[in-house]
Amino acid sequence: MSDPSRIKCSVLDIAPVLFGSTGTQALRNTLDLARRAEEFGYHRYWLAEHHNTGSIASSSPAILAGQIAAATTSIRVGSGGVMLPNHQPLVVAEQFGTLAALHPGRIDLGLGRAPGGDPLAAQALRGHWAGADFPDQVREILGYTTGANPISANPVPDEWPPVWILGSSGGGATIAAELGLPYASAHHFGPQNTVAGLELYRRKFRPSQWLREPYAIVAAVVIVADTDAQAQRLAASLEIAHLQMTRGKLAPYLSPEEADREPYTPAERQLARDSFAPQFIGDPDTVRRELTDLVKASQADEIMALTIVHDHAARVRSYELLAELIASVPSAG
Hints:
Layout: E1 8-13, H1 23-40, E2 44-47, H2 61-71, E3 76-83, H3 89-102, E4 107-112, H4 119-126, H5 134-146, E5 163-167, H6 170-179, E6 183-186, H7 194-204, E7 216-224, H8 228-234, H9 236-246, H10 256-260, H11 266-275, E8 280-282, H12 284-298, E9 302-306, H13 312-325
Parallel strand pairs: 1-2, 1-9, 2-3, 3-4, 4-5, 5-6, 6-7, 7-8, 7-9
Helix pairs in contact: 1-2, 1-13, 3-5, 6-7, 9-11
């Protein structure tokens, strides 16, 4: 049984594709990391949906979640999230109902309203169907879980997976609060909105048949190494990827050595480094202190770590160190 006085910790994965490697290897790394995360004691393992992005292999969260659930035994598995405007709600309900029937009590359905890719990818996914407003799509999925809709989503599992709302601003927090659903705040996207968004979520929360009290995750970039300098060096891959993204390049993640050879100025590199300042990059003492401050400020119930480094062994080691240090981070309660 987990210690209620300590914050829960989970994994957010995008199956990063590494320069010099392949999408196939990225998925193998994801399965390996999921097994290790379960060994380390992580609470849940979520996959994020992205499209038309050469650096990310997690285009199909439902498929990946099924593979991970089959390769593990106890860790919760789900989407963080399915980008609902890309999909018909009935299909999503059927997919996650199937997962819940196969892996009872272990599946989560996190829903987001971002496109998960560029306009070309969105057009290819949606065709001429623009989809309903996101809150209506969420209500439709909830209707399948309660049997309130005129058609059913089959198979009907013994227990439907909990539905989560993902967001990086007040909009997602408000939807989650008004529907009485758990909320996951994307600190890795919008750190400036995390504290205010969670305060808004708790203030507006309406108890529902799905959740009696508000429950919130904060998802953040976390890179832990034996020293601050080592962690910052590992983060070079992510910093360069940030600069590449601003120029429309979404290529596989470079190693720190390859990142050094990219034609960016010291000023550009500093701007990239500064953009990750609200995230959690350092040795165990540094990350412990900063996560404790975040939990206290946000009143989060759970931390979800997104760790992207070029070396898979270093990535696994980062999660191992995080699992050790998180035991001394007190919960908000």
